[in-house]
Every structure is written in C-alpha cells, then in structure tokens.
Amino acid sequence: MSLQLSRLSSVYGAALDGRTASVRFQQSQLIALHAKLQQLQAEASKAILSDRRVTAAEAEVECATTTLAVKQYYESIDFDQCLKKEYKLAEGQNSPDRRVGFGVVLIRPAEHTRWYSVVVAAAAAIAAGNTFAIEISNFAVDRLLPILFTCLDAETYALIDSQPTEAEKGQVALVVDQTGELSLAKCLSSNPQLRSVAVVDRTANVEQAASAIVAAHVLYRGASPHAPDLILVNEWVKKKLVDACIRLAPDNSRRERITGDDKLRQTVTDAERSGEASVIGTTSLMLVDIRDRRASVVKARSRGSYLPIVTVTSLVDAVVALEGSEYLVAYHFAEPAAAKFLSQQINSRVTLANHIPSELLS
Q: Topology of 195-250+259-360 in CATH?
C-alpha cells in the first residue's frame, strides 16, 4: 500500500469515526487554523510573491482575506443551535434542517490566489464536518501547507501530489474542483476558463463603471477569472468610458509589472495590421477598440494591459454579440430595468449589476 493511499485511508477512517461531526471539534480546528495563519503570514506573503507576479500589497491582501474567511467560517457555527438540532429527534421533534458532512472532500485548487483557494476550501470542509485531501503541486505556497496544517488533527487532512488512484476515488465523497478539468457526478466545479464580460449601457453611470472595470483589470494584473476581460459599450457613451478608463489607469511606473508577460500582445498586433482593431490608451492600460467582431482578438482571453472593447448599438445588439456562449460572470452597468433585461438574456453563472466586488477577484 502506497503512502498516499495510507494517508487517504486515514482521513477516510476519521470521517467514518464521527469526530468531525462534533461542533466543538470543528470550532477547535478552525481556531487552530486561524492562529497558524496569523503566525505564518510573513512566510505566506513571500510564497505568494514567489509564485505570482503580484505586488507585496496584493500578497498581503490575499493573506488577510484568507485569515478573515477562516474567522467567518468559525463565526458561522452556532453551537447552541447545532445542539438543539442534534437533540430534536430525542425530544420527539422533526429535524428537517439538520445537516451532516459528506466524508472525505478532495480539493483541487486553482492557481489564481492559490493560498486563498486552498485554505478557504479547507476551512469550508472543516466547518461542514468533513475531512479533506488536497492535490498539491510545485508552488511555493503548496510547500508551506505541511507546516500550516500541523495545527490540525493529523488524521483529518491529507496532501497528495497527484490525482487519486481508482482505489482512492472510492474513499472520496465529494470533489471540489476549482480547475474546471473534471466532470464527475459528485463534484462542485468551477470553470475558470470561461470568459467574464462587462456590458456598459447608455443608461449607466459611466464614471462608476470605468472605475470598477479598471480596478478589476489592474488588481492581480487582471489574472482573476472573475475580472472582466471583454467590454461591450453602447456607442453613445463609448468615448466617455474610454476617456474615463484612460484617466483612471495606473501610472507608467507599473508598466513592467502589468505588461511583462502579456501573451495577447502578438494577437493584438496582428489585429491592428489587418485593420480589425486599434489600440487606444497608455502603456499601463491599452483599450483594444474592436472594429470586426469576428476578429481573433475578441475570442482571446485578455491579461496584462490589454482590454478589448466592442461597440454595440443597443441592449439587443449586446445580447446578440454575446449569444451562443456561457460566461463565468457578467457585469451589467445600466439602470435597473436594463440590467434586468441583460441578466435574463446573457448566459452567465453569476450576474452582478453596477459593481464588481473586490472579494470576487480573490
């Protein structure tokens, strides 16, 4: 029996023996995890900086957001209410809202904000009464996980460096796949490969829309799957939006950090040469004005400084431009009635109106 199988058997046994169903156990595990996160904050920030080209401030924000999320999971556990639900049956009452854990939860973390992605998923598993296993890789953040999880019951977690074997899959009750690579029956899956779009209607507060779009595109170099990477703007407010985006763009001192590894550059250059698009803006934020909606640059996932903009003539035209595809997030900047229409017609997993929450970009 391999070491990995032995570790997964251990977390499987811990799930069966019922220890993770204890509310006090869940609370104690989350308290220990929260304390360890605070202790390792400096090391975690260094690991994040090593893995991804982000600023020191962004690394610190990721650490702080992760620690806060664990605290929120702890606070979500109401001991008195959980106790009442547990003893309802003993008192001759129905307990239709009682919940129990799945068992072993396998977590396949995303690359983006990996520290947050791993720890928050683990905290969620603990708070729901599960044991968990995490598929790790060669990230600096992953090498810190054995130290982080020493604060937990050693039989309630496992770190494996490859996908589970067929034998191990039988011990997994639920897969949390943040990569979008698996399609399983018992799987909570996110698909970061899907596009995220923003529609700016003529009824929008254009200054507010520009501020939200630029902030989302600059944070983490626009690498968040939830940052809009395609903008559709009504022709009547296009110039106002473009001017506002350029004015709000970061200064040129961030040019190297933002544009250094932009894979879209050649595609944009080709589109310019063929007359399919033109670039407007500064070195820190280049708005790609699309002249031909069939251009390959429209389909390319934007990162770094480039942000494609498609001009539309109406709400219906925006819907037609986006039809036939599913989007991860659609942000609609418009008056409420127009935002409602867009949300009903554009196929996205999440729809938000007139704002882009910074928490969603983590």
A: Aldehyde Dehydrogenase; Chain A, domain 2 (3.40.309)
For residues 174 and 185, give the distance between their C-alpha atoms in angstroms, rounded to a whole number: 9
Phi first, then psi, for residue 166 (nearest 5°) are: -60, -40
Give the pTM: 0.85
Q: Which residues pair with 195 in a beta bridge?
A: 327
Residue recorded with tokens 């626009």? 222
Average pLDDT over residues 5-34: 90
Using the Cα atoms of residue 208, residue 213, residue 214 and residue 215 in order, give the sign of their dihedral: positive
> Could you tell me which residues are beta bridge partners of residue 330?
197, 351
| pLDDT at site 2 | 45
Query: Per residue in 44-90, pLDDT tens?
Result: 999 999 998 788 999 999 999 999 999 999 999 998 888 888 788 88
Confidence category of residue 281, pLDDT binned at 50, 70, 90: confident
Q: How many helices (H) and strands (E) does the chain have?
A: 15, 12
Neighbouring C-alpha atoms within 13 Å toward the C-beta of 10: 16
Can you say whether the dihedral through the CA atoms of 212, 214, 216, 219 is positive or negative?
negative
* Alpha carbon distance 32, 39 (integer Å): 11
Topology of the domain comprising 1-189:
Aldehyde Dehydrogenase; Chain A, domain 1 (3.40.605)
Mean pLDDT of 282-308: 79
- Ordered by start, the domain boundaries in the chain are 1-189, 195-250+259-360
The pLDDT value recorded for residue 197 is 96
131 φ, ψ (degrees, to nearest 5): -100, 170
DSSP codes of every residue in 81-94: HHHHHHHTGGGT--
DSSP string, 280-344: EE-SS-EEEEES-TTSHHHHSPP-TTEEEEEEESSHHHHHHHHTT--EEEEEEES-HHHHHHHHH
